[in-house]
Design a protein that fits this description.
This protein is α/β, with parallel strands linked by helices. Helices cover 50% and strands 13% of the residues. It is built from nine helices and five strands, in the order βαββαβαβαααααα. Strands 2-1-3-4-5 form a five-stranded parallel beta sheet, sandwiched between helices. The protein is globular, with a radius of gyration of 18 Å. The protein starts with a strand and ends in a 5-residue tail after the last helix.
């Protein structure tokens, strides 16, 4: 029996998903939450079905990374069309993607495959993996990605500092480190426009 969880912030979709999984003999849904933060880190799971876009402001990169660090496989379940977000999920280690518009049998097959660690292949996912491979990973920490998300979107350093509860100088240090990390992997980010482009490429900024 494979144990899975769903991270989805739309109640109707969660209900439909729960009903579908109830009919799968070798899979059990042990948790359904609205964010990755709401999922207990010590829960026993094989795989997490993750919505690509969540209302809590989190990113696919941060969410997939967190789930993978806990030892769980990740399957993306989405209606979104943003290729940058899909690429960032692929780069972070998700096993594949299923559209919310897909037939139930396709979703069931994908769940069974991903729950055992298998990749869920599709033309769209293959394109995302290829695109992700073309962009070197800067290796940003979760906090660095959080700073980049706000700063690249046009927030001032002072505004970012206020929102995160840190000093303006600390924000400046983060920005310096972010620029250095991108530069080290051959993706220059000397200007704010460059940072915006890098954030878009990595799915940190929609």
């Amino acid at each position: 029996m494979r144990r899975i969880a769903l991270v989805e912030d739309h109640a109707l979709i969660s209900l439909g998903f729960r009903d579908l999984v109830a009919g799968i003999e070798d899979v059990t849904l042990v948790a359904s939450v609205v964010s990755v933060d709401a999922l207990a880190a010590d829960i026993e799971l094989d795989m997490v079905v993750l919505d690509l876009r969540l209302a809590d402001g989190s990113t696919p990169t941060g969410n997939v990374t967190t789930l993978r660090e806990r030892g769980w496989h990740v399957l993306i379940y989405t209606g979104a069309e943003d290729r940058h977000l899909i690429q960032s999920a692929a780069r972070a280690g998700a096993l594949g993607l299923v559209r919310k518009s897909a037939p139930p049998e396709e979703l069931v097959d994908a769940i069974r495959t991903a729950a055992t660690g298998g990749e869920v292949f599709s033309t769209e996912w293959a394109a995302a993996i290829d695109a992700a491979a073309d962009l070197a990973d800067a290796g940003l920490s979760e906090r660095e990605a959080e700073v980049l998300q706000m700063y690249a979107a046009g927030e001032t350093a002072q505004s970012v500092a206020h929102h995160l509860g840190i000093s303006r100088a600390t924000v400046s240090d983060y920005v310096i480190r972010i620029r250095r990390k991108y530069s080290q992997v051959g993706r220059p980010a000397a200007s704010r426009v460059d940072l915006y482009r890098r954030a878009r490429e990595d799915g940190i900024l929609e």
